[in-house]
């Protein structure tokens, strides 16, 4: 499946890339695609997508201006936050724990 392979490639780039490389990925529009993959039927792909989104949000945090993580706004804007919140209830512990970490770390003020 092409989407599955692309998710792996983007995740590897997000997790291992420099800030400028991750920013380039975001500029190319990977956030909505990754957020779509949060609902992948394959749990491994879902977990990889969470990892990629989390790493992108970490870069966004380092680049924050005026206390706003622009990448978090992009994730929220394409429905990623809602998907992450739903994944907190996932049957697979690794997925629910990663989703919980990402929501608490980057969106806690939005869900209070």
Our measurement of the CA-to-CA distance between the termini, rounded to an integer number of angstroms, reads 38 Å
**So what's the overall shape?**
globular
What series of H and E elements makes up the topology?
A: HHHHHHH
What proportion strand?
Answer: under 5%
Unreliable residue runs: none
The whole-angstrom Rg is: 13 Å
Q: Structural class of the secondary structure composition? A: mainly alpha
Q: Would you tell me the overall average pLDDT?
A: 92
- SS summary, helix count: 7
- Count of DSSP E strands? 0
Helix fraction by DSSP (H/I, runs of at least 4):
over 70%
Task: Please outline the major beta sheet.
Answer: none
Care to give the gist of this entry?
This protein has 112 residues and is mainly α. The protein has helices spanning 2-16, 19-27, 30-37, 43-62, 70-77, 80-87, 93-107.
């Amino acid at each position: 499946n092409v989407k599955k392979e692309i998710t792996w490639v983007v995740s590897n780039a997000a997790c291992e890339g420099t800030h400028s490389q991750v920013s380039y990925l975001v500029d190319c529009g990977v956030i909505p695609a990754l957020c779509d993959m949060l609902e992948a039927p394959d749990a491994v792909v879902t977990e990889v997508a969470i990892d990629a989104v989390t790493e992108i949000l970490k870069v966004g945090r380092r680049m924050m201006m005026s206390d706003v993580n622009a990448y978090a706004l992009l994730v929220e804007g394409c429905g990623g936050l809602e998907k992450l919140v739903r994944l907190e209830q996932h049957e697979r512990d690794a997925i629910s724990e990663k989703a919980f970490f990402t929501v608490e770390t980057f969106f806690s003020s939005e869900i209070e």
